[in-house]
């Protein structure tokens, strides 16, 4: 009887830990976001037109994240999945509120002015992105999607702690091997996404300040494991000059 009572009490305690903020949030249900992505994203592009008429589920998902304290999630992977999904879902919501539009650049303060409630605070998209970056995995830059054509493609599934490492690896491989968005070598020039120019120290920590920019020699060991062998070989041969690809801010929308 004592063992049965102990087992029952342990089960109750586990249930409380899963749902009670007082005991710490242990997990987040990203299932609703996953369903929406599978419905409205194809080939990394978003069907905003159809999604605009079906925003209730997205609003409910974002509302469910408002009371979560990310610091209380069970793992670093859980925290990172939370911030990535929150960022991407908030970007989509920001677009849907103003659709149709050709670019998020048409919306004043889209990244640094519009506010989203998180853990009883109001954060901008830039601040949400910063929280994801602080967790120290540079691959996050290829999962965060700013609703633009030069962004990484939006994954048609939610990020989840159990598969986060594989998901981030797949996103990184896809983006870096895209010569229009991510990286390419032409002659003695290494063309890179502007993402590398905006956040150099996220990739190479010592690349801080104007006089400590990225160099091919410092970047190559980091990105080569994710590149096709022939591209990795070109980066490793001789000195290259880094230049940055133009960033296309056209909306990442599906076309009818």
Please estimate the helix content: 40-55%
Secondary-structure element series? HHEEHHHEEHHEEHHHHE
* N-C termini distance: 65 Å
Which percent range describes the beta-strand content?
5-15%
* Unreliable residue stretches: 1-24
- How many beta strands in the DSSP annotation? 7
Give the overall shape.
Answer: globular
The total count of helices amounts to: 11
Provide mean pLDDT, rounded: 88
- Please compute the radius of gyration using only Cα atoms: 20 Å
- Category by helix and strand content: mainly alpha
Q: What's the story with the biggest beta sheet?
A: 3 strands, mixed
Order of strands, widest sheet: 5-6-7
Plain-language structure description:
Helix content is 43%, strand content 9%. With 256 residues, the chain is mostly helical. Helix 4 crosses helix 5 (76-96). The longest helix has 21 residues, at 76-96. It starts with a helix and ends in a 12-residue tail after the last strand.
Structure at a glance:
Helix content is 43%, strand content 9%. It is built from 11 helices and 7 strands. The chain starts with a helix and ends in a 12-residue tail after the last strand.
Feature tags:
single chain; 256 residues; mainly alpha; two-stranded antiparallel ribbon; 11 helices; 7 strands
Helix/strand layout:
Elements: H1 2-19, H2 31-40, E1 41-42, E2 45-46, H3 48-52, H4 56-66, H5 76-96, E3 116-118, E4 121-123, H6 125-133, H7 164-176, E5 183-186, E6 189-192, H8 194-198, H9 200-203, H10 216-223, H11 229-235, E7 241-244
Parallel strand pairs: 6-7
Antiparallel strand pairs: 1-2, 3-4, 5-6
Helix pairs in contact: 4-5, 5-6
């Amino acid at each position: 009887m004592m063992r049965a009572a102990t087992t029952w009490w342990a089960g109750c305690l586990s249930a409380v830990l899963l749902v009670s903020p007082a005991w710490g949030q242990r997990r987040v249900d990203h299932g609703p976001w996953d369903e929406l992505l599978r419905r409205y994203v194809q080939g990394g592009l978003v069907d905003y037109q159809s999604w605009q008429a079906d925003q209730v589920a997205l609003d409910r998902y974002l509302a469910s994240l408002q009371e979560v304290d990310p610091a209380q999630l069970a793992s670093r992977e859980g925290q990172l999945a939370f911030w990535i999904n929150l960022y991407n879902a908030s970007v989509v919501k920001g677009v849907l509120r103003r659709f149709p539009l050709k670019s998020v650049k048409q919306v004043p303060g889209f990244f640094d002015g519009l506010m989203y409630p998180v853990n009883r605070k109001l954060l901008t998209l830039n601040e949400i992105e910063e929280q994801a970056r602080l967790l120290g995995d540079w691959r996050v830059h290829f999962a965060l999607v700013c609703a633009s054509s030069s962004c990484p493609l939006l994954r048609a599934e939610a990020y989840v702690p159990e598969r986060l490492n594989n998901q981030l690896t797949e996103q990184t491989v896809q983006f870096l091997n895209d010569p229009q968005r991510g990286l390419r070598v032409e002659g003695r020039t290494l063309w890179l996404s502007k993402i590398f120019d905006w956040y150099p120290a996220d990739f190479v920590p010592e690349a801080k300040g104007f006089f400590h920019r990225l160099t091919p020699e410092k970047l190559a060991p980091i990105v080569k494991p994710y590149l096709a062998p022939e591209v990795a070989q070109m980066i490793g041969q001789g000195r290259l000059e880094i230049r940055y690809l133009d960033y296309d801010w056209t909306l990442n929308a599906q076309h009818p």
